[in-house]
Amino acid sequence: MNKFLTSLSSVVVACVTTFAAHAQDIRGDVFAGEKKTAMCVGCHGIQGYHTGFPEVHKVPKISGQSAKYIASALNAYKKGDRKHASMRGIAANLTDKDIADLAAYYADHGVRMPEPEKAAPGSARAQELVLKGGCVSCHGDSFSKPIDPSYPKIAGQYSDYLYVALKSYKTEGVPQIGRSNGIMGGIAKQFSNAELKELANYLGSLPGELQTVQPGRFR
């Protein structure tokens, strides 16, 4: 375990350095982003909205997520590192400025409340799984303050979405399903699906900054 976490830390540092070196310095505009959300609000702007691909689950809360993570995720869909037909189709038509504007917009609409420095412990089993995955080393002790803004806040995210997302990092060789990420792939493959579900349920039960904001509340 110690050897794995040491290797993970090295990969994380390398990835953060690479991201910083290659990130484009494009400033997103919140008001411009609001005008570009037509393809987003149909799923991410409806409370409790479900999708049926690759299995039934709620679409993720993205309001309050960090701008750098949203941009990173959209670029991953655009490049095909995240395999999801509808998201790739949307992302493929976005310019770098579009992505920056949308990321700025959604980052601006999160919950503004004090967050605990450390997440509630949960069950002994949940804590065992968190330790096994080294989750706090990237996502922070509260799971709302990741060590790099290109990593997601995951506290309070929908549990069923987290479960599907975690499983997708284990999927290989399927044209329409899966996510390519060296760090998360190595972590997720340590767990059974039952363990991933338990981990997702714990993370989803925590208070967090993420929410689904319906369009009528933006004005």
Structure description:
This protein is mostly helical and 219 residues long. It has a single domain (2-217), classed as Cytochrome Bc1 Complex, Chain D, domain 2. Helix content is 48%, strand content 4%. It contains 11 helices and 4 strands, in the order αααββαβαααααβαα. It has helices at 2-22, 30-34, 41-44, 67-79, 85-91, 96-107, 124-133, 136-139, 159-168, 182-188, 193-204; strands spanning 50-51, 57-58, 82-83, 178-179. The strands form 2 sheets. A two-stranded antiparallel sheet has the order 1-2. It has a two-stranded antiparallel ribbon with strand order 3-4. A hairpin with a 5-residue loop joins β1 (50-51) and β2. α4 crosses α5 (85-91) and α9 (159-168) runs antiparallel to α11. The radius of gyration is 17 Å and the shape is globular. Mean pLDDT is 88; it is low at 2-23.
Terminal Cα span: 49 Å
> Helix and strand string, N-terminal first?
HHHEEHEHHHHHEHH
**The number of domains:** 1
Overall structural class, as computed from helix and strand content, comes to: mainly alpha
Q: Output the strand order for the largest sheet.
A: 1-2
* Second-tier CATH architecture: Orthogonal Bundle
Q: Quick check: average pLDDT?
A: 88
CATH topology (fold) name: Cytochrome Bc1 Complex, Chain D, domain 2
Biggest pleated sheet:
2 strands, antiparallel
Number of strands: 4
- Cα Rg: 17 Å
The count of helical stretches stands at 11
Helix content range of the residues, please? 40-55%
Assigned CATH class: Mainly Alpha
In terms of DSSP E residues, the strand content is under 5%
CATH level-4 homologous superfamily:
Cytochrome c-like domain
Shape: globular
Low-confidence stretches: 2-23
